[in-house]
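Q: Okay, next protein. This is Probable peptidoglycan glycosyltransferase FtsW from Clostridium sartagoforme AAU1. I've checked the sequence twice, so it should be correct. Can you predict the 3D structure?
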Amino acid sequence: MDKVRALSIKGRSRSRSTSRRKKIKMKNIDYSLLCAILVLLVIGIIMVYSSSSYYALYQKDVYNSDFYFFKEITWSVVGIIGMLVTMSIDYHIYKRWTPWIVLITLGLLVVVLFAGADINGAVRWIRLGPLSFQPSELAKYVVVLYLALLIDQRKGKIKKFAEGTIFYLAIAGVFALLILLEKNLSITAIVMMVAFVMILAGGAKISHLLSLIPMGLAAGMGLIFIESYRLKRLTSFLNPWADTSGDSYQLIQSLYALGSGGLFGVGLGNSRQKALFMPEPHNDFIFAIIGEELGLIGCIFIICLFIFIAIKGTSIAVKARDNYGYLLAIGIISVISIQAIINIAVVTGSMPVTGVPMPLISYGGTSLVFNLSAIGILLNISRQGKEEELN
C-alpha cells in the first residue's frame, strides 16, 4: 500500500510539474510580431482619420469628419479583444470547432446570395441592424482552419494527385465558388492562392501543382472576359491614360497621389487627392494617400513591416509544435501577405484594379476584427513553439 501511495504522489507531482511547464510556455509569445502588428494598427487608425476626414465631412447623411475615425477605433478595440482571446486559447481546440465553423460559414455565404445588403453596388454583406458583416472575410480564415485540419488528418494523401492536391483544392473551391457568386473575384482568387500555398507547404508534389497553374490562369481569364466590368478593368490597366475620367479614374488619382508625395510626402493630413478626387480614399486605395502624405519613406516603412510580419510568421510556422500548427501559421500569414501584395500592386498600377483592402490599415470592421483574431491564433502557436520546450 505504501508503495502504491508513493507512486500516486509521484504521479501527481509529475502532473503538477508538467502543468507548471505548460503555464511557463504559454507566457512566451512573439512580442516582436505583436509590436509590428500594433504599429501597423496605429498607422492604420491615423491614416483612416487623415484620409477619410474630408470625405466624411461632405458625405451625404454623415457630415462629420470624425465619423470613420471613431468607427475604426471601435473596431480596433473589438479586434484587439478578439486577438487577446484567440491568443489565450490553445490552437488545438480549433480541431473540434472547425466542422461547426465550416457549416456556419457556408450557411452565411448562402444567406448573402439571397438576403445580402447592397452596399456601393455590391451584395457581399449581411445587415445586422446598424452593423454590416462580410462573410467572405471570415471564409478566408475558415478555409485555412479546414485545410490545416484535413491535411494533418489525411497525412499520407497529400502526395497523391486526385486524393491530395485536387481534393484540397476542391474543398477550397466550394468556398471560392460561393464567394464568386457574390461577384467578388478578388477574394475568390485569394482563397484559392492561400489553398495553393498551404497544399504546397503540406508536402504536395510540386509537379502536381505546376500542372494546374495553366488551368488556373485560363479559368481566371475566362472569369474576367465573361463580365464586362472586369474586362474594362483589365483594358484600363493595360492603358490607363486612354480614359482618365472613366474606368481608369481611380487608378489615375492613385498615381497622382503617389507622384505628388515624392520622397518625404506633403505632410500628414495635407493630401490633396483625398479632397473628393479619390473615391473613398480610406478603403482599398489608402496606400496611395499614405504615399502622398508620408512619401516613399512612409511606403517603404509599411512594406518593411509587412515583410517583417511575413518572416516572423514563417518562423513561427517552422517552429510550431506539430504539423497542424505549422499549416495554420502558414495559412494565416499567407492570407495577410497575399492581401498586402495585391493591394500594393493595385495602388501602384502593377495589376488591374480589384477590391482588396490593405490588412490592418484600410478601413473596414469585419476585415480588421478577423485579421486581428487570426493573428491571435498565430501568437498562440508561437507560445507553444519547439524552442520553448523544457527538458
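A: Here is a summary of the prediction. Residues 1-25 have pLDDT under 50 and may be disordered. The radius of gyration is 23 Å.
Q: Noted. On to the next one.
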